Amino acid sequence: MCGIVGYIGKKEALPILINGLRRLEYRGYDSAGVAIFQNGKIKKTKAVGKIDSLSEKVKTADMVGTVGIAHTRWATHGGVTEDNAHPHSGCQDDLVICHNGIIENYRELKEKFLSGHTIKSQTDTEILAHLIEVFYEGDLLTAVRKALSEVRGTYGLVAMHAGEPNKIVAARLGSPLVIGVGENEYYIASDTSPMLAHTKNVVFLDDGEVAEITLDSMKIFNVDHKIMDKHVEKIEWNEAQAQKQGFDHFMLKEIFDQPTVVKDAIRGRFSLEDGAAHLGGLNMTDEQMHQVKRVVMLSCGTAYYAGLVGKYAFERLAGLPTEADVASEFRYRDPIIDEHTLVFAISQSGETADTIAALREAKRKGAFVRGIVNVVGSSIARETDGGTYIHAGPELAVASTKAYTNMVAVLILYALQFGRLNRVSVATGERLLRALLEIPEKMKLVLAQSEKIKAIAQKYKDYKDCIFLGRGINYPVALEGALKLKEISYIHSEAYPGGEMKHGPIALLSENFPIIAIATKNQLYEKMISNIQEAKARKAPIILIATEGDAQAKEISDDVIYVPQTMELLEPLVNTLALQLFSYHTAVLLGKDVDRPRNLAKSVTVE
Ligand code: AGP
What we know:
The chain is 36% helix and 22% strand. The chain is an alpha/beta fold.
């Protein structure tokens, strides 16, 4: 995700800002920029690529001053270009802003407030800069507050205006911002890592708060414009810990990111009133959507297991025959694809060679081909004729977690969008969407059990083999759980549909071969319990993922992780987190390199 750094004090700002951006490189980015107050004006330099490119450019830009802001951009709206890089200005160059987050209603704001304005970039952020410019009447704080009152979305924002030298205004809603308090100097950043070399005394902005920072004061206002008396905290983290925001590994941070980023996956993409989903990136008319007679999900690894959930969702909601295919298999079969087929290429990186090759095969055969990817401007995003970014933010751990749940959330919205064409009523659609809106809080209930799950992992970490079981929508969850465990702990783990055990795998079971089974209260619960009884009769240790309040689960298992009840179709968004934490803690207890497991790459760009 993007990174923000700001400085106001008596030292040269440029080196502090450039070095601050380097501390944020871990967040992932594709362009960067910096702006400095200088002799009553604001000078700006931007560059595509790494910080080194920006650092080279500023050497000849004569940027001297003690107040400035800087930004690393991870593209969400608009490609990777210098125009799209931050800082952004309005029509005049006397105002600059850097922004993290998503301005959901940027199109409406442009239509309502910006007639006559010349928009130079494709970004939502530039619209916000012009909006602040519209409201600016000599006081930057007031202009920022007025502009933000018109915004729907999320922001971490810093702004400067040439009319008010030695002042930075900062604001936060849904995208973190922290202020470092030095000796007659202040630092502002997306997290503490850029400031730890200068100060460990920090103030975390809370949602809705706006700060006005000058050379000798820092005022923080709440939504009612009341000055807040904020606590200055002393950070004990080192830089590496700061980058993980206090978590021990990126994987754990990203597991805990899920309640936040799943909201980004669905934000602005549905209407409760219509009980419908509206994913504009689908780029298909209703007539074209009615042409679709079959759906194919193409992906690999974790993305394949998301595609499997998509299969269940499309069949149930849209009533469309749906296949989920491993991309590397699809392309060498003779797949039955035609102009009535809709193919989704699902990929976190958007660069997986097998998936790219498979989507090209589908295009060649005339299918509608759409991408569901995380990385903006990636190959799959460019080679498909539309699609949806999952907005999970950079996923730095090799083992995919938050991208999986965001893929699932987007697939469920797509299934609803097609379902509402004929099969799904407004009421059913609204019920599904309301259940989806409850998911972030339900995810948090699972995350709150991390220490309990760690204790369970402690009991089972030394087993050499295990089997994950699930039925229906939880079979893909079992597959994903088995993949997570094997790829970071190196324990041999497989997954089977619950009903398959008796057809062979049960021969493996003994007291040395544990079963991790998802037995939540849904239409297949009783059948799953029977499968577990069969396993128990062979003395296999049993760990259950069960629904809160299910007393029977304790009686038939050795350990239970309780998860909150949700609509069956949405269970993968909750149940998977228990398995992610189980795998994470097992691997840590075994001393494995959780973020960089052996033999694996984050993006498999070779066949
Ligand atoms: C996920 O934990 C794995 N690291 C891997 O299976 C991954 O999901 C797969 O390589 C697909 O990657 P993509 O989503 O970037 O296409």
